Amino acid sequence: MLIYNYFMVSLTEKRKIDHLKLCTQKDVSFKEKTTLLEFVELNYSCLPEISLKEVDLSTSFLGKNFFFPFLVSAITGGAQISKKVNLDIAKACQEIGIGLGLGSMRAMIENPKIKDTYFVRNVAPDIFVAGNIGVAQLNNYSVQQVDDALQLIEADALAIHVNSAQEAMQPEGDTDFNNLIQKISLFADEINVPVYVKEVGHGISFDVSKKLSQTNIKAVDVQGAGGTSWTRVDSLRHKKSFGEVFRDIGLPTAISIIETKNALNNSGKKIVATGGIRTGLEAVKSIVLGADMVGNALPILKAQQKNGSKGIIEYLKNFKKEMEITSFLLGCKNISELQKQDFVVLGKLKDWLQQ
Ligand SMILES: Cc1cc2nc3c(=O)[nH]c(=O)nc-3n(C[C@H](O)[C@H](O)[C@H](O)COP(=O)(O)O)c2cc1C
Fold it and tell me: For residue 8, is it within any domain?
């Protein structure tokens, strides 16, 4: 249950409160578009010739170890109610041994008084923690300002979110996206921690990933379509928004993974598969398609709302088990074996790829 005094807070804080409230209380999913992962068929083996116990999905990502390849996508920070959410998520991730992304640091750069809502190192000293900033805000902040914020929260990396569709739905949105690839490149060169780029649930295309491949970023987090629709969230926030028209805009997650893999092609940059990933089976399909890491946001927030860090731990343990069972059924003991697996694409996914 989210409790707050709505009239005592700033616009940025209000936006964070609205987002948390809408995502937990309304249907914010895509209307018809799916991730298309349902059209990926894996090479099931009734005789995998390994033991389930041998499956070990541990990995490393941007210099930190993960007990299994799950990175909680950016959710919150900046509103007083974000504090408990972040601490619960961080506690659970520390217990399981995986990483998390914090929500946009814009609020703390604008108002340093609320910086503590992002502090998680007291409960999560060892794990990967990413700071976050919107790409359009790179026009407003210097490298030094962002670096200072990252240092305050003791982040291991910076996630820059690229979200043209979401910004266009907000009356107050930043919609000047001129020359932002140069900004990403500059920040990737100059920020003191590794930088990666993420969408917010509408997908990253071949063309964008190709441009990103020329920069010094270390990973692309696809955040494809099929899960939480941010045009939908912002149309619920602003009654006059065009959000309903654009609710289903974007590239399905399966397409975004495949296009990004083709675009990054041996560049050494990692791929994170996100956007509507709801089961361990879908997560393993994403790895077979070429991802190195998976993650999600809304299911983690819902598990937190249900039962705090305990709810998230239970959710993640179950998710991990689903991934291990899927790997076992393919006869794969680890991520690199999964990435060499054959797969078949059917239906809509095949049609899309053929074009
Ligand atoms: C309540 C909430 C707040 C979010 N805030 C941010 C944010 O500050 N920065 C960001 O990059 N993404 C943010 N996201 C987007 C998620 O990181 C993710 O890209 C998106 O929800 C799609 O993943 P899903 O389908 O698993 O929810 C937020 C998501 C939720 C649910």
Answer: no
For the ranges 2-6, 96-100, 265-269, the lowest mean pLDDT is seen at: 2-6
Residue nearest to atom 29 of ligand 1 (CA): 75
In this predicted structure, what is the pLDDT of residue 3? Answer: 46
Tell whether the torsion through CA atoms of 170, 175, 181 and 184 is positive or negative.
negative
Determine whether the shortest distance from the Cβ of 274 to ligand 1 is under 6 A.
yes
Q: What is the C-alpha to C-alpha distance for residues 102 and 90, in angstroms, rounded to an integer?
A: 9
| Within-domain flag for 14 | no
CATH of the domain at 78: 3.20.20.70
Domain for residue 41, yes or no? Answer: yes
Give me ligand 1 centre to Cα 6, in Å.
Answer: 21
Taking only the tens place, the pLDDT of each residue in 203-242 is 999 999 999 999 999 999 999 999 999 999 998 988 777 8
* Ligand 1 centroid distance, CA of 151 (Å): 22
**For 47-88, how does the pLDDT look when each residue is reduced to its tens digit (9 = 90+)?**
999 999 999 999 999 999 999 999 999 999 998 899 999 999
List, in order, residues 6 or more apart from 321 with CB less than 8 Å away: 280
Is 1 part of a structural domain of the chain?
no
Choice from 228, 236, 248, 302 to test ligand 1 binding pocket (greatest atom count within 8 A of CB): 228
Contact at 8 Å (CB) between 71 and 99?
A: yes
Domain count, the chain: 1
Indicate whether residue 252 lines ligand 1 (CB < 6 A): no
Measured CA to CA, the distance from residue 300 to residue 305 in angstroms comes to: 9
